[in-house]
Design brief:
Elements (H helix, E strand, L loop, with lengths): L4 H4 L7 E5 L3 H13 L3 E5 L3 H7 L6 E5 L1 E2 L2 E2 H11 L5 E5 L4 H9 L3 E6 L4 H16 L14 H6 L3
Parallel strand pairs: 1-2, 1-3, 3-6, 6-7
Antiparallel strand pairs: 4-5
Helix pairs in contact: 3-4
């Protein structure tokens, strides 16, 4: 294991993404665009097989439709988290009621919600930001190694 930030926390620095969506055209669009932006992308139509694929820890991000065959996005996230507590999931959906949004936001594995129809370039920005946060040392994000903004740390240094 190398000395990178990602490796120290047990995940690959490779920008590897799993797209879970039973709409093949959506999954292919996301795959093609993210591949052009330097990601290694696999797709899966959903259901329990998606949990098996996503649980092995190969993926730095899982982008999943909320409505996938066999289970909903909340069930998917919870089942995935039981198998891989470090999994990071971005949920994409056209229909999310406020109660479901609150439940998803409370899930530690959920790193964001995107409403369909979505701007593909906004999705790319979210994915790039996600990987930047995973691989950048805290100081490059405006944070000290202790998780405090430099100005705040300087204020209380003495």
């Amino acid at each position: 294991m190398d000395g990178s930030i990602g490796a120290r926390f047990g995940f690959s620095d490779e920008r590897r993404v799993l797209v879970v969506d039973d709409e093949e055209t959506i999954a292919d669009l996301i795959r093609d665009v993210l591949t052009r932006h330097g990601c290694v992308v696999d797709t899966n139509a959903g259901g329990r097989s998606a949990i098996d694929v996503a649980a092995d820890g190969r993926y730095g991000l899982v982008i999943s439709d909320f409505a996938i065959p066999g289970l909903n996005g909340l069930e998917f996230v919870r089942a995935l988290r039981m198998r891989n507590p470090h999994a990071q999931v971005l949920i994409v959906s056209a229909f999310l009621d406020p109660e479901t949004v609150d439940l998803l936001r409370a899930e530690p594995s959920v790193v964001g919600l995107v409403r369909k129809p979505f701007d593909i370039f906004d999705l790319v920005r979210r994915v790039e930001s996600h990987f930047e946060m995973r691989t950048s040392p805290p100081s490059s994000l405006g944070m000290t190694p202790f998780g405090q903004p430099p100005a705040l740390r300087a204020r209380y240094a003495d």
